[in-house]
Design a protein that fits this description.
The chain has 180 residues and is of the alpha+beta class. 71% of the residues lie in helices and 16% in strands. The protein has a two-stranded antiparallel ribbon. A hairpin with a 6-residue loop joins strand 1 and strand 2. Helix 2 packs antiparallel against helix 3. The longest helix is centred in the middle third of the chain and has 68 residues. The two termini are 26 Å apart.
C-alpha cells in the first residue's frame, strides 16, 4: 500500500510538471505616483504613471521544465518498478510458505511420534534404573533424549505458526481470526 501511494503521488507530480508547459494567460497592472516640488517656482508637481496588460506566456523553450518532466517521469517509473518487484517477491514468498506448510505438518507428526517413542523408552529406562540394571548417567541420557524430542515438536509447532503469520501478513489478513 505505501508503494502504491508513492506511485500515485509520483503520477500526480508528473502531471503537475506536464501542466507547467501549458500556455498561461496573465493579467498584470502597475501604477506609479511621483510627487515633488519644483526647484525654480515652488510649485508642487504630481505625476502618475500606469500600465496594464494581458500577457500570454508559452514556455516552449524552457529546458528546465523538460528536465523536471523527465525527472518526474523517472521517479514515477521507479515507483512502478518497485511495486512490480515487491508484488513478485510477495507472490514468491507466499508460494514458498504454502509449499512448506505440508512439510511442516508431516514433520510435526513425525516429531510427535518420535517424542512418544522417547517417552516409552524413558519409562523402560526408569524401570531399569529402579532395578539397578542401568547407571544414573544412562538414565539421564534417556531423559535428555525425551526433552530434546519435546523441544523439537515445540520448535516445529512454532515454525508452523510463524509460517501462518507470515502468510497472513502477506495477504493482509487479520491475525486474530487466524489464531482462533
Amino acid at each position: 500500500e505505501p508503494l502504491k501511494d508513492r506511485a500515485d503521488a509520483d503520477a500526480l507530480a508528473l502531471k503537475a510538471q506536464k501542466e507547467q508547459l501549458w500556455p498561461s494567460l496573465v493579467a498584470k497592472g502597475s501604477y506609479f505616483s511621483n510627487q515633488t516640488d519644483a526647484y525654480n517656482n515652488d510649485k508642487s508637481v504630481r505625476e502618475g504613471y500606469g500600465s496594464y496588460g494581458i500577457y500570454l506566456k508559452v514556455p516552449l523553450f524552457n529546458k528546465s521544465n523538460y528536465t523536471q518532466i523527465d525527472q518526474a517521469k523517472l521517479s514515477y517509473l521507479k515507483s512502478r518498478t518497485k511495486i512490480a518487484k515487491a508484488t513478485l517477491e510477495l507472490k514468491a514468498d507466499a508460494q514458498r510458505l504454502k509449499a512448506t506448510l505440508p512439510l511442516l505438518e508431516h514433520s510435526i507428526k513425525v516429531a510427535k511420534r518420535s517424542a512418544q517413542n522417547r517417552e516409552k523408552l524413558l519409562k523402560i529406562a526408569r524401570v531399569s534404573f529402579k532395578n539397578e540394571r542401568m547407571s544414573e548417567e544412562e538414565y539421564l541420557r534417556y531423559e535428555d533424549a525425551r526433552s530434546d524430542a519435546q523441544a523439537k515438536v515445540a520448535a516445529l509447532v512454532a515454525k508452523r505458526w510463524q509460517t501462518f503469520v507470515q502468510l497472513a501478513v502477506i495477504y493482509g489478513n487479520n491475525l486474530k481470526g487466524i489464531v482462533k
